[in-house]
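Chapter summary example.
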Amino acid sequence: MQIHRSGSVLLTGAVAAALAVTALPAAQAVPSATAVISEVYGGGGNSGATLTRDFVELANAGSAPFEVGGLSVQYLPGSPSAGSRWQVSELSGSIAPRGRYLVAQAAGTGGTVALPTADATGTIAMAAGSGTVALVSGTAPLTCKSAADCAADTRIVDLVGYGSAVVREGGGPVPGASATASVARAASLADTDDNAADLSAGAPTPVNAEGETSGGGQEPEEPGPTEPGDVRIHDIQGATRVSPLDGKAVTGVPGVVTGVRASGSRGFWIQDTAPDGDPRTGEGLFVYTGSTAPAVKAGDAVLVSGEVAEYYPGTGTQSLTQITAPRTTVLSSGNALPAPAVLDARSVPGRYVPSAGGGAIDALPLDPSRYALDLYEALEGSRVEFADTRVTGATTAYDEIWVTVKPRENPTRRGGTLYASYEDQNTGRLKVMSLDPARPVPTANVGDVLKRTTGVLDYASYGGYNVQATELGTVVDKKLRREVTRKQKKNELAVATYNVENLDARDDQAKFDTLAEGVAVNLSSPDIISLEEIQDDNGAVNDGTVGSEATLERFADAIVAKGGPRYVWRYIAPENNKDGGQPGGNIRNVFLYNPDRVSFTGRAGGDATTPVRAVDTWKGVQLSASPGRINPASPAWDNSRKPLVGEFTFRGRPVFVIGNHFASKGGDQPLHGRHQEPTRSSEAQRIQQAAEVNTFVASLLKADRSARVITLGDINDFEFSPTMKTLTRNGALKPLITTLPSSDRYSYVFDGNSQTLDHILTSPGIRNPDYDVVHINAEFADQASDHDPQVVRIKVGGFWH
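The structure predicted for these 801 residues follows.
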């Protein structure tokens, strides 16, 4: 079910019969715009079943991650009685674009094959032949027990009825579910709101967020080989990114175990101790054991048989060469490990990756002496080592950090690595994780130093090449501190932008307090703040709430508690689920302002759908509505935040402020992926959005060429991007980020790259602005938001200067 899609209905048999008199047009089979239930299986553990547990699989057909935190999967018997209740399994995390998410449910006494590692686990014992499963915004149990009542419940994101289920989408439930058959959505993830049309029965095929399938829950291994075969690891890896033996069986591949991964995508790495001397052909390899814990340890000499497979961990990624369904023989233990390859400024080339004109580089011969990604591919699965390295991306919630093995490569002022252009990729960046759960990566901030570390080079969907550390160095704290900008003077107007990362009234007080301290202390209480990602008052609960008064009241109170002024606010609430972001969250742009320093010029008429206009009057240019929105009906803003425009007065002078939050980069091909150069598909919408804002600014300047316009916010693009060129065309706006030294041009850190997504731009009528990016979040492991705020101060005396 696509959220709030026009005409979305759930039909009982009686209702369907009533409507049969008038034929309804067939729904178009297109992928869902949101997450869907992609597979349901209630036969796990039953007599005759192979799998030991029931499961529900979710999928994301979209181009951006789909947050499931605060959502739930719920189950109702197929023929509910008066005493039947919806059972609830709570979810957390997110689903990657085109990714899957596996919810394990109750286990039975039958079956022999375990599910892949679940992304969430419930205890619901679902019936094999009939039932209803719903994906729900929120965790409160549903109360509906008929198709019509459930159709009216706006909390339901998607719903699947199977067997003889009374509650289902469309004219009938999905037939054919049993102890050996699940019901699954087509590969296109089409959602026409007709369960029987969209899903069909077949053998269960659970997939988790890591791409693991039920093949990982393998039968006990057959006896392994006792003699080496004719194939070595370098024969499997070959001289390109794809194995020449892909899909073929191999027997008795020799190697020494160099690392073991006992959780997640389980398996172990082996490396040949007799390399062939060709730098293109790798000597390391991952052996995938799925849900079975590896029965080997580092130092074991082994022979491995199985099937060679190329695993693509995500959309647009390169592949990871591996042996699947392995049979392993341990010949001896305690063997010396192969010497690690040293990664440093000398060994890693200065060029990033070869070009294929936007096509796939899979078949290109590797050139590890020329391209960094070719070197990393040639070392895939092999032991590597680096000496003391600079941390370029702080420790994440997943116990990962980014480092650079090239300490002089594009350094920022505070220790990061600058993303300077599309053509100048940073070749020394690598993500580091620990293979030892008892010793995770220590907490580190940008600029700290990770001491000598040894591990196995791996490849994953997020971040690409990474080091799975077997010997993790300590972190040297370089004492990075949060910045505090100066206080504006009496005759200076201070205007800031701050993305507060999905703030809503249900968030912990600690988040409000930390963000408030950023405003009151680090930003020194600006006169006007343009906020991005303020959600409605109940966050991701999808019940039609669109107001943000409780959220903003808590934020304003927290700022006062931190020593700041009592801010007031202005915003325009979006139409429900029309502005993108987290489903049900209704994020929007908001203006906070200090009424003791600046006044807001309110004009009625602004709403979610009415465009604001520049009005030329004898007093000068004015807004037709304040606050207002820029051309909200334009296709440029489809499923995206609309800019908020407000007219303020400071020391008797009008100032026009435009708060922005352009479309995200979701859907772009990864920098490290198989397509080179990567396609930036999301850029097209931001260029359209930039054109809309530029046109509106031009209308203000046409009425008054000296109009003081400040355009700011999360533009979601770089200072060198086509988006910024469009936003600044004809000299309407000047990007202030370009006035800073290059080593300070960043407000966000992604995959170890310090980059600029947030911007403040000013019109020609504003001269000599004093601009500052205030680094308080992006470089720190402990952060209230993933963005750094910015502020501009403008002198105002009797005249503007």
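To summarize the output: The two ends are 56 Å apart (CA to CA).
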